[in-house]
Specification:
Blueprint (H helix, E strand, L loop, with lengths): L1 H17 L2 H12 L4 H8 L15 H9 L8 E5 L5 H9 L4 E6 L2 H16 L4 H5 L1 E5 L12 E4 L6 H12 L6 E5 L9 E10 L2 E9 L6 E2 L3
Parallel strand pairs: 1-2, 1-4, 2-3, 4-5, 6-8
Antiparallel strand pairs: 5-7, 6-7
Helix pairs in contact: 2-5, 4-5
Length: about 220
């Protein structure tokens, strides 16, 4: 038992060092800690509100661990559907050498905040290249073009009914069959197979994480 715990801690430490987690996390918090996404979301939803618009935030290290299982690389085009203030898209591009990191957000106030945080990142020495790979789209993810995606993150915790059904239908029609990561519940899309499951920390607690692709793999059980 002691050896297993020691080995796990050693592997986590090596993973953190390889991805410079501590350095990136410090920068991430420097640009996002002054931003209150929950208040911005409430203000944006005063005229239009629904369960699927409830706001939540990633935990930086847990989110990077989630993405690590998908092995992002220089060919990865990452999409965050419902990107809020841009935390997921910015975190992805900060840590991983992806081709593009894109966030789609319906509410203008949150979208504007995301662009502001991208601009703040660009000012920080060593992060201009990462910032230049980040794009924010002010649109509904049910209608926006997501065809280029090779890796998609969906906070599905608050998605139900018609919105969830329409999103799954859209995913079934994508030409590139990307890796898809969802929180709280699995896809119902027909053309994807569950490949991994895990649990991770988010702002609202520990949630189930599901990984999908268009091919079959043995299912893995892990916890961050």
């Amino acid at each position: 038992m002691f050896y297993k715990k020691w080995l796990t801690n050693r592997l986590i430490k090596r993973w953190r060092n390889n991805l410079s987690i501590q350095q990136h996390q410090k920068v991430f918090h420097s640009i996002f800690d002054p931003i209150d996404g929950f208040t911005l979301s409430r203000q944006a939803r005063t005229q239009t509100d629904a369960m699927e618009y409830v706001y939540g935030e990633i935990d930086f290290e847990s989110f990077i661990a989630i993405l690590s299982l998908a092995n992002p690389n220089a060919n990865t085009v990452f999409y965050d559907l419902g990107s809020g203030t841009g935390t997921a898209s910015i975190a992805c591009s900060m840590v991983f050498n992806v081709q593009k990191s894109i966030g789609i957000e319906k509410f203008e106030g949150l979208h504007n905040s995301a662009n502001q945080q991208k601009a703040e990142l660009k000012k920080i020495p060593g992060y201009a290249l990462s910032a230049n790979k980040i794009y924010f789209i002010h649109d509904d993810f049910l209608t926006a073009n997501i065809d280029p995606a090779t890796l998609i993150f969906i906070n599905a915790t608050g998605l139900f009914g018609e919105t969830w059904d329409q999103l799954n239908q859209r995913l079934d029609q994508l030409p590139k069959r990307p890796i898809i990561i969802t929180t709280s519940k699995p896809l119902s899309a027909m053309n994807y197979t569950l490949t991994h499951t895990t649990q991770a920390k988010m702002s609202w607690g520990i949630v189930d994480i599901y990984y999908f692709n268009h091919y079959s793999e043995p299912e893995l059980q892990t916890t961050f």
